[in-house]
Amino acid sequence: MNDLTFAYLDNDAPANDALDAFVRAHPDGNAYQLTAWRRAVAAAYHYPGKVLVARRGADLAGLLPLCEVARPFGRARWISLPFCDLGGALADSHEVAEALAARARADVGAARAAGLELRCSAAGGEDDAALAGRKVRMVVNLPGSAAALLGSYPPKLRSQVRKAEKNGLASEVTQDAAAIGAFYDVYSRNMRRLGSPPHSRAWFDAVHRHYGADMFLVLVRSENKVIGAGWVLLCGDKAVIPWASTLADYNALAPNMLLYWAIQAQLCERGVRQFDFGRSTFGEGTYKFKKQWGALPVALDWREWDAHGVAPAPAASNGAGSKLRPLIESAWQRLPLTLANKLGSRLRRYITL
């Protein structure tokens, strides 16, 4: 690849508009690789972002978005990308993608960073045995209309969507910043129920501000109360849902069914042809929920290297972490919501999943 030249551009470089056009047009491009994600990370959590660009002459051949993510102790790591499932290089060939990753591995030590982490998607084609226990993203291809989508569902799935409507639930699609508060209330309550620190409200304000027309929210109401909410990011004819939550006390009314139906119906009408339901563990509950909508698994391939560009050997586990986690989750579930949100906002910047 001797014909390639490399350069790093920061989040405010004028060339980012052209890079975003490349991401939107690429068959593997996703909303996280848009400049908006790095800008939101920088605005909410103060982690610098940049993009490594490969060119052949004046022509763009590929890019690798990166954020410098701090840790409580020690040097920052380069991650592509934090707080999401997918990052990694996007290029016009596999060879260029590998060259971008190799260049980042070579540069990370000189930049005094602790290492590099790339969050990529596997090539696909694995059978169920190979996917067992692995993290996958669930992807569905959408037809040209909501009517065609509904007609493609088996009778049981259609009846579950209608059940939510018969229970008096209603959905709303919006891009209004005023909806963030309703979304955050459902999201943060759900995170406390799961025993997990939530993102800060400032994070969602930043995502809304920087994505603009490339995002929308769906709210599900029972009478006047918002009981379900989802946040969708757009990238050309593809979309992904990073966050979706419902209030557990209302789950008998099937708000999650109406939520995901409303999202997919809206995407069909917007001309989106591929919807990524996000990360699940193959074979587990959330995987099965997403699979019923016709989504198929694609394995995630996350890799990391140290400051010398060497992949660390897998660490042996004594099981202490798995034993401690339920205790931490149980303690978090008992926190008052206001305190959980305040503490979570401070802790979440160090939890990059």
From TrEMBL:
Q: Which residues form the BioF2-like acetyltransferase domain?
A: 156-290
EC number(s) recorded for this UniProt protein: 2.3.1.-
Key words of the record: Acyltransferase, Transferase
Any one Gene Ontology MF annotation carried by this entry is: acyltransferase activity
Pfam entry (one): Acetyltransf_6
Alphabetized SUPFAM superfamilies for the sequence: Acyl-CoA N-acyltransferases (Nat)
Statement: the UniProt record of this protein carries the keyword Nucleus: no
Record-given protein name: GNAT family N-acetyltransferase
Q: From what organism does this protein derive?
A: Massilia jejuensis
